[in-house]
Design a protein that fits this description.
Layout lengths: L12 H10 L1 H14 L2 H8 L1 H8 L3 H4 L1 H12 L3 H5 L5 H18 L5 H29 L4 H31 L2 H7 L1 H25 L17 H30 L4 H28 L4 H20 L5 H25 L4 H33 L3 H21 L6 E2 L2 E2 L10
Antiparallel strand pairs: 1-2
Helix pairs in contact: 1-12, 2-9, 2-10, 2-12, 3-10, 3-13, 6-9, 6-17, 8-9, 8-12, 9-10, 9-17, 10-11, 10-14, 10-16, 13-14, 13-16, 13-17, 13-18, 14-16, 15-16, 15-18, 17-18
């Protein structure tokens, strides 16, 4: 006689239930549109930064507010994610985040510098919380496909900045005939993301009701991650790779425009960087999930960025596309590895949420120094050589953090692994 079928109590069981309720198609579409929306603000502004500087008579440091300001928001407001999910579900919080991005993006079309900055910062606030919860949403719905879905998520995040950068100038010239209107028009993809995430949030409410009796409430911030050397290594890797990424998003087109390259061609360099990042963004998380140690993988993706920076420093127009591609391969691999490590080093979803909040809040505050410092060094020296050399130096720290974070060791507090507090089902 067959024994009674036992209930599935594996860690992935609640996620399978959640995915069956919301629907795999809805989940994938929502994650895709969310990821695509997280860097449009950055890439679109960098493509017309020269025009913005001329319109408002700005120096390099002041203009960097449009790229540094949002990055600071990513750091300052990332910790709000853990507070928000105590009251609302992860998809519901993401709907609110995307609405902020829509409003902020539309405000960038106003003919005042202060409103342009405010709109950019408002969008940055929404992106800050969404950055933290994107990997958490993946872990909630696809714990058995973390590598694949993180790769897809990262590829779209990386590509969106380049797509926005490459398309902004042509859209300005052929369609809108105004850089302000063009910047505001990037709210259209954000509206689509709001709709998709709202559908997911409505369906996820049924998951919350179904699991409320057996699953604990939303995770609290786990202060223990602050005492974990592994958590600090993940945070350092996240922060320094972001410092490089946002420095390139902010200044790579400007570097080549200052050297005499046409605006459209310079914008396409960032597009090449972002599109090439898709390759490593898709492959690195899959490899990382299969390896016990990711240290060697971290060194490899850092080496790609070092080669690209050396090429940009050399200043050759003929090989500019090659250096952009190398930078893209490095950055796509670094970002996707950083996001994957947040899940691989965390023993449970609650810890993953805290680690993600820590890595992104502290990491993005660190990364904000990149565009600002690069602009300030350029203003004081009149050359892009010194800023590029400074970025090469910080690659040493990136490699060191990647080596430590890649070791097969979980996030711990003292000698004890942080205890599981359950998944975020119902949060």
């Amino acid at each position: 006689m067959d024994s009674p079928r036992q209930p599935d109590t594996s860690p992935a069981a609640p996620a399978r239930t959640a995915l069956s309720v919301v629907g795999p198609g809805v989940a994938v579409v929502a994650i895709v549109l969310l990821a695509f929306d997280l860097r449009l603000v950055f890439g679109s502004a960098s493509a017309v930064l020269t025009e913005i500087r001329l319109t408002y008579d700005l120096g390099s440091g002041s203009a960097a507010l449009l790229t540094t300001g949002p990055v600071l928001c990513l750091g300052v407001f990332a910790v709000a994610a853990t507070r928000a999910v105590r009251r609302w579900s992860v998809p519901a919080v993401l709907v609110g985040c995307l609405l902020l991005v829509v409003v902020g993006t539309v405000l960038r079309g106003a003919p005042w510098w202060s409103v342009l900055v405010f709109g950019t910062l408002l969008a940055g606030m929404g992106i800050a919380v969404a950055n933290v919860l994107g990997p958490v949403l993946i872990r909630l719905l696809f714990p058995h496909r973390i590598g694949l879905m993180t790769g897809l998520f990262t590829a779209l995040v990386s590509a969106s900045a380049g797509i926005a950068s490459g398309a902004t100038v042509p859209l300005d010239a052929a369609v809108f005939h105004s850089w302000r209107t063009t910047l505001a028009a990037w709210a259209i993809p954000s509206v689509l993301a709001v709709v998709a995430m709202a559908v997911l949030a409505l369906r996820y409410r049924r998951v919350s009701r179904a699991t409320s009796t057996s699953a604990p409430s939303a995770p609290q911030w786990q202060a223990g991650v602050l005492r974990s050397p592994v958590a600090w290594a993940v945070t350092g890797f996240m922060g320094v790779q972001s410092l490089l990424a946002y420095s390139m998003i902010a200044w790579l087109p400007t570097i080549y425009r200052d050297r005499g390259l046409a605006a459209e061609s310079a914008g396409l360099l960032l597009t090449a960087l972002s599109v090439s990042s898709i390759v490593t963004a898709l492959t690195v998380p899959v490899l990382a999930a299969r390896l016990r140690r990711q240290s060697g993988l971290a060194i490899a993706v850092v080496a790609l960025s070092v080669a690209g920076l050396i090429g940009v420093l050399a200043g050759s127009f003929e090989l500019a596309i090659v250096w952009a591609i190398l930078l893209g391969l490095g950055q796509g691999g670094q970002l996707s590895l950083a996001l994957t490590l947040m899940n691989l080093r965390a023993p449970n979803t609650s810890t993953a949420t805290s680690l993600s909040a820590m890595a992104q809040s502290i990491g993005y505050v660190v990364s904000a120094a990149g565009p600002l410092a690069a602009g300030a060094i350029h203003s004081s020296t009149g050359s892009w050589t010194a800023p590029l050399l400074a970025l090469l130096v910080v690659m040493i720290a990136l490699a060191l953090c990647g080596w430590i974070a890649g070791r097969d060791a979980p996030v711990t507090t003292g000698d004890r692994t942080i205890e599981s507090t359950g998944i975020v089902a119902g949060s």
